[in-house]
Fold these 2 entries.
Entry 1:
Amino acid sequence: MDPKTLPAIDPRSGFCRENSIFYSKRKPIPLPSNESLDVTTFISSRAHSGKIAFIDASSGRHLTFSQVWSAVDSVASSLSDMGIRKGHVILLLSPNSIFFPIVCLSVMSLGAIITTTNPLNTTSEISKQISDSKPVLAFTSRALLPKLAKSNLKIVLIEDVDDDNVNYSKLSPNIVTSLGEMIRKEPKPIRVKERVNQDDIATLLYSSGTTGASKGVISSHRNLIAMVQTIICRFNLEDHKFEQKFICTVPMFHIYGLVAFATGLLASGSTIIVLSKFEMDEMLSSIAKYKATYLPLVPPILVAMVNNADRIKAKYDLSSLHSVLSGGAPLSKEVIEGFLEKYPTVNILQGYGLTESTGVGASTDSLEESRRYGTAGVLSPSMEAKIVDPDSGTALPVNQTGELWLRGPTIMKGYFGNVEATASTLDSHGWLRTGDLCYIDDDGFIFVVDRLKELIKYKGYQVPPAELEALLLSHSEIVDAAVIPFPDKEVGQFPMAYVVRKDGSNLSETAIMNFVAGQVAPYKRIRRVAFIAAIPKNPSGKILRKDLIKLATSKL
């Protein structure tokens, strides 16, 4: 709804007293009216003046825009020849790569669905995702082949793009071809290509919930198109006078990396400099080498840049840098002002979003907005919000704290094969319950007060406590356990466990940490253990994490 048609809206806060909805104060994003449109076609049809699309930061290898779209056509044609059809799920297990976008765009152009997974995940964690999403084909790298060994999936090898002399059968009997072979094929007209509508599923990304069960988030082509438009409008990327270069430090398997850096920014003609994995010195040297203008990061990296500013500025030329884009948690006044003091020519922009909202929700789009310290930003274009009292369900006005609900063109379709989880997260009017306790102030700025969801944020990764608790309870010498976030300047938060041992057990902290470390991805490892007589719980049996957090941090 256009706020201009609602006279009861407060122009400062965006709040409408008649329906208790907060409306975005930003200009609404334009969306295509053509229903028969896939996100790949939408991106490829946009006019731009860019030449280089992707650069591999370590090797310098690059792909021009024409090479990208030629490769996408060839891979889509090859997939069609292999029998891939609309609605089929394709798994992509890979670190960041300049070829990651080729796979995603090709798959989505056919109306097939891309599901990505973290390369750090264990074989068991990946197997659970495969069992849930039921892909018919997987793309992966040579190093990650062992993680798919038990799946019996047909595999396309991403590496060896230029090598015709690889004996794939020696690597794995499941390898059917390589991405290089697909790219080198002359694309044929895809006669069997089915019509793709904006409402069709484009991506299936897995989001960790409080229950510990990872849920597949269904995003449509419309969701992704709206996200692309939001990004272009946010950074004013339709102005082609200046060449913009974004460093891609965020993982492309994540919603922000996939939709922004692997696909969306192509629509603006911007150049993406791809780091295969995050490494501080490689990131900084890539900014200097390729004259990057935008740097996305999470708060711990920004803090490290402040703490090591003298060494960094002596070693690296960061003069091209225009803005850093921070997400994951609001920045404090001390961090913002400390950064601006050390890097006075660089803006700080912040963003808030969820996998369920296709990475969109709120943002600060100027330094002035970021200096509203502690804010998650102003509602994104075309986004609506409610602040709802979790107990009564009543929608609240400005400056009152409740659960943030969001509605808009980027909100997911639901959770894959999980009607119950969808119903508890999305209501019948399209409102997404974010699980974040927030308030919106008189000027429309959102402030996150606490999390209903209790996810632990480790270096930007989300760690569900319940998953680790279930693992701990499988140990024969553990009676009860609770996992909490422990604050840390370097990583943001790390998982800490409170454990109740069986009578007579001498189980050590180290043994517990090693027990968990052998079964989960590195970012999920428990890094601190304390023993306790009993886990505090409320009458319904819910763990009182706040009490444990207070206990753990009281000695800091």
Entry 2:
Amino acid sequence: MSKRKFFLLIVLMSLSLIGIISIQAYYINNSVKNEKDRFTDNVKTALYYVSNTIQKREYSEYVYKLQDLISNNAVVDTASIRNLYVVQENQDSKETVVYRLGNLEENYKFSSPLFDIGLDTLSVKRVYNDRETKVYKDISNKKGDADLSTQQKLLLLDKISSTDEILFEDVYKDLAPRQPIRKRVSENEIKNLLQKKLHDLGIDIDFQFAIYGNDLATKVQSDDFEYDKASTFSVPIFQNQNDGSPYKLLVNFPDDSKFILSSIIGMILMSVIFTSIIIIAYSSALYQLVKQRKISEIKTDFINNMTHEFKTPIATINLALDSIRNPKIIEDKDKVMRYLNMIKEENKRMHAQVENVLRISKLEKNELNISKDRVELHDLIYDAITHVELIVEDRKGYIKTHFDAEQCTVLANETHFTNVIVNILDNAIKYSPNAPKIDVYTENVGTNILLKIKDQGSGMSKAAAKRVFEKFYREHTGNIHNVKGHGLGLAYVKRIVDDHQGYVSVESEKDKGSIFTIRLPLIS
């Protein structure tokens, strides 16, 4: 897959994930908003219900008292009749249709022992409502009515019918506000009414309430009520004749947020869980894509380097064989032996490369049998140095040892641990552009021995130092073949050191060389 397609795929996947998360967030936010609105509507409904119920209760109490007063031989102080007439006359049918809406008002004035409002006398208005529709046929031909005008005809019809109801609203709205608020309503009444109505509306959480007059607290309130403009609900209570009121019934809910979220918590949790799964799956897929792409690049690099590693010895072997076939050379035993030695060395070189790959493969599958014995680490270091000292001398370099460790007995596999040291030394030689200068140190630290291999080569970046022990990893230097290798040597080193319960690390700086440190536990 090309870089452009790979980048486009990641962008599309990322945009899709962002879109899904945004839609989920919008849906959750919308659901929370809808639940808040529904909660607010239900609370307002409950408050208006309580306000109206309390006002109706108070009004009923006044009606009962006023009825008792009027029935107690009260004398009408004044009376007045107010009527509205609508008259329609049909000349063809000789019919007259009269619609009448009438009010009879009776005013009473007397002293009141039933209302403790601080007044000597009390005026009460008693109102009778009357509605009537009548049809008259040829009303003008009735005896004695022939010369009546329309106005006189209406006066003739002006009679009050049965009483519909007794209205005391004016008296109630005038008298009730004179009472202290604590005498008009109690905390228990408000609490019981609110509790019942809220329960009917599905709101079963604690609440606090109060009645405020002219934006000031009254004595009618619950113990823990605290006014908060942002979260307190309010409706007017005890409205006056102008439908206004100085009093407000207020209520707030300490746990309203939890209650609102509780109704949709299941949906929110499911949404969060599924969104998290999508994010994890996306991250994992993206990680695998990037990892596979890197592995593909590393393997391509590995194949190219391995090809280069094999091409050189194969070409050398072919040249040596061609030279041996030459009749002039085949008779020269010294030259034949020289070419045969070259073939043997190049064959060993290829065999070592194959063995390195096989060892890593077996380590990955835990099939490599590593038996350990008591060995002297200094002896293993000397043995490893003999494998590379000819190459170092050929390049006019040196390997110096600085053995400061008094104890160097470890439990190790002689062959594999020697290969570990050889690989580090070989790495130091390959990455020294000039004559390789290598120093090997040992020292005791507690119950461990430290082995440090320091070179003065090209070094590596910090990013490369973190990944240098990964399989197939090689730092690119512009031309991947300028230093031979396949990225398996140091991976092998780490696996063997780990198997020996040791620890390996590297400190490096570009153009200043590297220091590889191996720590192994000592045995007595």
